[in-house]
Amino acid sequence: MTSGEVLLEVHDLVQEFVLRDFGGTKGGVLQAVAGVSLELHVGETLGIVGETGSGKSTLARSVIQAPPPKRGQVIFQGQDLVKLSGRALKSARRNLQMVFQDPFTSLDPRWTVTRLVEEPLVAYAEGDRQERRTRVSELLDLVGLDPERHGGRHPHELSGGQCQRVAVARALALNPKLILCDEPVSSLDVLVQAQVLNLFEKLREELGLSYLFIAHDLALVRQVSDRVAVMYLGKLCEVGPVQSLFAEPLHPYTFALLNSIPSPDPTVGRRDTASVISGELPSPLDPPSGCRFRTRCPRAEGRCAAEVPELRELTNGRFVACHFPLPAREAVAADGKAPDPVVAVAPAPLWPAEPNGAG
Amino acid sequence: MSVPAADLLTTAPAQDVLGGVGAGPRVRSRLRNLEIIVPGALLVVLLFFCFIWPLLYHIPSPTVADLFEVNRPLWSPGHILGTDAVGYDVMSRILYGGRVSFEVAAAVQAIGLVVGGLFGMIAAYRGGWTEAVLMRILDVFIAFPSLVLVLAIADSLGPSETHVIWALSAFSIPAFARVARAATLRLRDQPFIVAARLSGTRTWRILLQHLAPNLAPQLLTFSLLGASLTIILEGALDFLGYGVPPPTATWGNMIATGQSFISVYPQYVLVPSVFLVATSICLNMMGDGLRARWGVR
Amino acid sequence: MASATAAGDAAPPDVRLGPSPLLEVSDLRVTFHSRAGNVYAVQGISFSIEPGQTLAIIGESGSGKTVSAQAMMAILPRTAHVTGSIRFNGEEMVGRSERELRDYRGRCVAMVFQNPERSLNPTMRVGSQIAEAITTHLPLDRKQAHERAIELLRMVRIPAPERRFYEYPHQLSGGMRQRVVIAIALACGPAVLIADEATTALDVTTQAQIMDLLLDLQEETGTALLMISHDLGLAASYAEDVIVMYAGKVVERAPTKELFAGVRMPYTQALLDAIPRIDTQPHVLLPVIGGRPPDLSVIPAGCPFAPRCPEVQQDCRDQAPPLKQHEPERWWACWHPYRKGAGQ
Fold first, then answer.
1. Helical H runs in chain A?
2. How many Å apart are CA C200 and CA C207, to the nearest integer?
């Protein structure tokens, strides 16, 4: 499915925000993305998972240069987007589109569906009015909306799922190569979510699209991705092919995330309370030294505080940023088919019971 | 018939749980409608009499005095609101004075809306130095007590209707700029604006086609409230002799000349005052009503 | 309370046997009147909940699950017209005055809302908010209320409760804020705790923490827990019984294990199929039904799910199937239920 050709390369991307106090003085620097490198191949879907505050949305925004990152390179189709501006950036960004989380706020409430889908075509002066309208009809058909029935409506006259279809049609208007999806289905109901996910899948096959798919829902990421990157507090913990990463997580954080998912199968039973990750995300204004996960990690040792673990390739295609990656055995509980997770994770002291109240 | 019932249910009750005490929603919404319809209708009637009625029917000229008909009381034949000490027909002067008030209010608000609105939008959208410089310039205007500033400008320009408009615009432009800036700041980072930028739309297009239509309700209600204030300020300028010079009929001029006779003929002051205050209240009520209806903050 | 009338005989079929249950809802209907027409949000639901029980109500937005919860808390807006009965320990709550209800809310039934940001006052210290909830219902002085508030903060496992008492909501993380909201709900020891999408806005690890906390608290205090959620996975992991709602009606009710072992109602199956699962293969299309939930301003003659149902037949369109008990502890409203695994 992937041709191996690299479409997007991100090198040491850093994005910072200066926080200001009420008086306007500098209140601190928030490093939302702290040196992330990754690659995305043609025809591939790379899933990025992480919790609120992990910097996954900021990463996507930095890739598309809205706003541009503080440091690092974003090489898309051989061009470093960070170095471009104005017209050059506009023409380079043509093949890079984005779908946002909230379908209602990402569409101008005063515009009609037709006008919204036409906007990118107008911006890039594609064809004349007649040609553009034909293209809009094609696009609406493609995403499963009726141009006659829905074209004249405003976003508030549509359901959430329909709005997200409009947003997808907009993103497809210029025939992009890569679409960044920032939690595109997390605000939708289960059935609608499945419909939209299937739409993404259909478009991938028909149009040969690549996706950078951001979500907090691991099961969902597994459904759509070829490879997955796990983010924690602005850094990547683990990157790997979706099946082996889910079957045998190497980073303790990935393991904890997988263990937190409620399964729609009660025979799996309630997992051991002690296996739930404890504590809270530390403040990104003052991240822990060394490994950023160490304050919540049951395996943390002295070295974790002193030395930042680099993202390194452990086995083929499996990258992990951890001094003490998990052996494969403990990952069994993440697999739904495990006999009994309570038994599988039996030595509970792996996880500290007391929340350490960081942050 | 495609109102998604699902959405109605999830949002509507949640909002009402907090604010659901008091009159039933039906009564409240009906009151809200009256709040817009009644002052709106009164204003339309007044506008009709000021601008269209004199074209259709002959009324006495507001600037030609009839020396044989001085100091007529209210409801005199031929002079419904009587005549003043010089023999001007009060009714006619009220209508022509209303023209001046409405013209000045409309012009001042239009200038404020366009110039101030653009200033505020550009400042907030661009941010950084553009914003700092533009807003500091406007702050200078806001920092002065408004009437003093307006008087100073009106005095240096000399009395005339155009000059009144310029003077009062110095007051409306910064006000509109502030409102537009605050609203733009709220909208600027909305995903739909970011999405428009990412799809390659140019800045001026985003300003005019995305931001402006979304700001419109807020700026329009603000202009109604502003118009009410402008009418009062215009009257004040005329009264103090810095506005439209006599013998042109304006409500302010009528009050100014009428005040010498206030003990004998109080109606010379009262009649224009009633019109001035009523118009101002109507504009204000309509602005408030529309603000509530459109959910503008 | 023991003297409550044995209404069980006359009540609809899905009332448990025995003395009057803790909270009993029967034939609850909620209609919103507006100028545009009526919206029949809840169209006759019945269920009961016992002390210590965990019951989940599952449904999409617009299924009436939140409106039902609001009816149970008696916090519906005035546009809502409620009929049917909600009995707490045998006492009727529908039609009570606002004053009587004030005591009922908080002491008998308490609610944890979806969004902790909106249910906390941003300008008040969290401790004072808990203390306020205590003193409105219990005859305690300031000092006692303070002590009780700290006890509650400790109970919801907030570290350093003495210090947290004086903090403002914005100083806490989302998970901590939701813990505070739970502490407020528990302030007066309610018999029933309603969690309306209480973990939806939270991250998956925080969600697991909060759900575990809720279940632990339930064990400690013996409260009944009513989870309102759109997430079948969450219900499967934490609830004993599941009620599935669609278009204002209960369409299936069963103990969790049995429900997931063999779904009867096609809608429940559609919901289950649509969830991406951790053990499915990448890029496999999810089996999903088309269409949208029906317009609630008209009550259809047939089954509300008929237009989207893969198993639909003519009788489904003609007559709506009633919710009936078909097997021990299992109810469903369907003319043509799935029969796989019959007999277990």
1. 56-63, 86-92, 113-123, 129-142, 147-150, 160-172, 190-207, 218-224, 242-247, 252-260, 302-306, 341-344
2. 8
Give the per-residue pLDDT at B25: 53
* Closest residue in chain A to residue B2, using alpha carbons only: A157
What's residue C95's pLDDT? 84
Look up residue C36 and give its two tokens.
Answer: 């545009």
Q: 3-state class of A97 per DSSP?
A: strand
In whole angstroms, how large is the CA radius of gyration of chain A? 22
The single-letter code of the amino acid at C311 is E
Task: Answer whether C238 sits within 8 Å of A270, measured CB to CB.
Answer: yes
Structure confidence at residue C251 as a pLDDT band (50, 70, 90): very high
What integer pLDDT is reported at residue B297 of this predicted model? 59
Burial class, C37, CB count within 10 angstroms (exposed 0-12 / middle 13-18 / buried 19+): middle
- Does C285 contact A at CB distance below 8 Å? yes
Which class is domain B30-60+77-294? mainly alpha
Tokens describing residue A70: 């503080």
How far apart are the C-alpha atoms of C26 and C93, rounded to whole Å?
12
Mean pLDDT, to the nearest integer, of C114-123?
Answer: 82
pLDDT surpasses 70 at A272? no
How close does chain C come to B23, measured CA to CA in Å?
10
Evaluate if residue A21 carries a pLDDT over 80.
Answer: no
CATH 3.40.50.300 fits A42-70+84-231, yes or no: yes
**A195-209: average pLDDT:** 91
**Greater confidence, A248 or B75?**
A248
What pLDDT does A179 receive? 95
The pLDDT score that the predictor gives to residue A271 is: 54
Residues of chain B contacting residue A106, judged by C-beta atoms under 8 Å apart: 191-192, 194-195
Residues in chain A with CB shorter than 8 Å from the CB of C174 are 52
C76 contacts in chain B (CB < 8 Å): 13, 17
Scanning chain B, the segments in alpha helix (DSSP H) are: 5-19, 25-47, 53-56, 90-111, 117-126, 128-143, 146-157, 161-188, 191-198, 203-205, 212-240, 251-258, 267-294
Element (H, E) at A178: strand A178-182
Nearest CA in chain C to B24: C78
| Cross-chain CB nearest to A157 (options B2, B199, B205) | B2
What residues have CB less than 8 Å from A265, skipping those under 6 apart? Answer: A336, C236, C260
Least confident stretch, A206-215, B114-123, C312-321, C332-341: C332-341
Q: Which residue has the higher pLDDT, A262 or A328?
A: A262
DSSP three-state, residue A88: helix
Domain extent listing, chain A? 42-70+84-231, 246-350
A127: helix, strand or coil: coil
Specify the 3-state DSSP secondary structure of A184: coil
Domain boundaries, chain B: 30-60+77-294
- A124 to chain B: which residues are within 8 Å by CB? 200
Task: Collect all residues from C whose CB is shorter than 8 A from any CB in B.
Answer: 32, 35-36, 39, 41, 60-62, 64, 66-67, 70, 75-80, 292-297
Residues C94, C84: Cα–Cα separation, whole Å = 8
Would you state the pLDDT for residue A354?
A: 40
Segments of chain B scoring below 70 in pLDDT: 1-29, 296-297
Q: Does the pLDDT of residue C293 top 60, yes or no?
A: yes
Per-window interface: B 188-207 vs A, CB < 8 A = 190-192, 194-202, 205
pLDDT tier at A171, thresholds 50, 70, 90 = very high
- Residues in chain A with CB shorter than 8 Å from the CB of B4 are 158-159
- DSSP secondary structure of B166-200: HHHHHHHHHHHHHHHHHHHHHHHTSHHHHHHHHTT
Interface test with chain C among A265, A275, A345, by most C beta carbons within 10 Å: A265
